[in-house]
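Form P-L/3: holo structure prediction, ligand NAP.
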Amino acid sequence: MQAFTCDRYGNADRLVLQEVPTPTPRPKEILVRVKAVSVNSWDWDIISGAPVMRIVGPFRPAYKTLGADLSGIVEKIGSAVSDFKIGDEVFGDVSDSGWGGFAEYVTGKAEDFAKKPKQLSFEDAACLPQAGLLGYQGVRTFGQVKPGDKVLINGAGGGAGMFACQIAKLDGAEVTGIDSANKFDAMRSFGADHVYDYKQVDYTKLEQKFDVIIDAVANKFPKAYRRALTPTGTFVMMGGKITSILSILLASRKNTEDGQKFKILMWNVNQADLNDLAQLVINQKIRVHIDKTFPFEQTADALQSIGDQNARGKVVIKVS
Ligand SMILES: NC(=O)c1ccc[n+]([C@@H]2O[C@H](COP(=O)([O-])OP(=O)(O)OC[C@H]3O[C@@H](n4cnc5c(N)ncnc54)[C@H](OP(=O)(O)O)[C@@H]3O)[C@@H](O)[C@H]2O)c1
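OUTPUT (holo model):
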């Protein structure tokens, strides 16, 4: 099969299209013929050698073939798989199965996939398992947003932020989105009531206090976030610096039922949430905003567009 591989850190031009053996599913895995794969900031962090990625791959990218968030058709099933059959249309995430989505075929744990409803396109479905679930679980599982809550989303113009904004709005919140000024229109189209440019405004110094803050790029210490939260507000760290993870983890030890709470979003791919998200899209409660769909041969351009921070929505690669 054809796959894009990379064995050195750098830009997306490190990707090489190669003929490699088609993988064989382990007992609890399925082999999927990839139809579409979306690109996430995580793919870029791996190839560019972000500090956190150097822990698992000190000298070269930890995974030879990137791409985790995808949709496709089941081609083979492992001996212990009972909930899928050959020919099923599926969508899921293979980041816990060794990556490999920038390829014609990929294997992944069956439990990290769900059946794709016919009404959902392969391209939209490929955006849901990672970016979609991060936004969904940030708002519902961790933020527990209620109608009337004032919710701030930092990084609201990005892949996961796009879903978090829409779901918070759907759940009745007043939404403030923070991102760069060139994403103001995008954030408004995702449902943000108020928008600020992170290069101009430090949200932790706004007068307004928030019931829930979901931060995709946390880079401050808890003291600053406490200032921006209501007395019983919740801070959800979706992504950010290693130092922030450690300090948020420490702050979370002081969480109380009637006080401020700090949580680290432990993203969890599961079929119930994938099915729920798919229904939200099918019922037009939320929309997948795709910035551009690239053909498979242009996978490196798709990845580079994420690295260059040019995308206004999701970037998708149509593999077959
Ligand atoms: N918790 C988990 O289990 C888990 C799992 C997977 C991924 N993640 C993390 O989730 C986060 C979100 O991923 P994503 O795919 O949505 O990333 P993304 O598409 O790159 O979105 C991030 C957004 O934040 C903006 N931004 C950059 N610096 C900012 C700042 N200082 N303040 C406010 N906004 C800023 C970026 O805009 P610019 O164009 O200006 O850069 C971009 O629009 C990432 O940190 C990723 O590592 C977490």
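COMMENT: The mean pLDDT is 97.
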